[in-house]
Write a structure and sequence with these properties.
This protein is mainly beta and 218 residues long. The chain has 1 helix and 14 strands, in the order H-E-E-E-E-E-E-E-E-E-E-E-E-E-E. The protein has one helix spanning 2-19, and strands at residues 30-39, 47-63, 66-74, 84-93, 96-102, 106-112, 120-123, 131-143, 146-154, 158-161, 165-166, 184-192, 195-199, 210-213. The chain is globular.
């Protein structure tokens, strides 16, 4: 009986250790491909425009005593490079991701992956855009053989995945919900130097660029 009990405790310990593993958002040369689908207005011919913006974190810089990652982006297929530096910087501490864009406003918290169902988070973006967001569900999702924690919010509806970020706009979560008239954003692909982590099942690759007549899907 003792050996059975010991085996049960060993299995439980291994499961708990695996379940509690944290996958960080920030990583050197990690890339995120963000898809925008824009419906051109009338008059005819009406068409749907697909564009991809790819982000990459690389290199360190020190700001006010803390080490931050630099953000780069490209509108082109990242295979051909043409990266440009964005002047926002990112760091991650205790499952929280911070962004620094302006010395006047200082750092702001972009993500808190330690939240649980029922928790609330205050988003301070300057009046009148300060508001609370609420976690309505906390569960997990399997990505490339790894279990990642997932947070679902309401009003606006938003999904965050540990190590991935927002499934809408990873470097501008929540705020993208209020970008009226700029098309629909979604996360297309996430990769790190070891390989692909996330892929939108509706598409076959990490770069989409096309203009199609309305009613024809890429």
């Amino acid at each position: 009986m003792k050996s059975v009990t010991f085996l049960f405790l060993l299995v439980l310990t291994c499961y708990s250790s695996t379940a509690q593993q944290y996958y960080p958002f920030i990583g050197e040369n990690k890339t995120w491909a963000e898809l925008n689908v824009f419906q051109t207005p009338l008059p005819d011919p009406q068409s749907t425009v697909y564009t991809t913006l790819t982000f990459r974190l690389a290199g360190d810089t020190t700001i006010e005593g803390s080490i931050w990652k630099k953000l780069f982006y490209t509108n082109n297929d990242p295979v051909f490079g043409n990266w440009q530096q964005d002047f926002c910087f990112y760091r991650e501490v205790d499952q929280k991701v911070y962004r620094y864009c302006d010395p006047m406003t200082g750092e702001e918290m972009l993500y808190d992956f330690s939240l649980s169902a029922g928790d609330s988070l205050f988003i301070e973006d300057g009046q009148p855009f300060d508001y609370w967001i609420h976690v309505v569900q906390a569960d997990s999702v399997l990505l490339n053989g790894q279990v990642h924690r997932r947070l679902l919010f309401d009003d606006p509806a938003e999904t965050w995945i540990e190590g991935i970020g927002s499934t809408y706009r990873p470097f501008d979560p929540i705020y993208a919900q209020f970008d009226l008239g700029e098309g629909m954003y979604s996360l297309l692909c996430v990769s790190n130097p070891e390989g692909q982590i996330f892929q939108d099942s509706l598409y076959n690759g990490c770069f989409v660029e096309a203009t199609l007549p309305s009613g024809v899907k890429e």
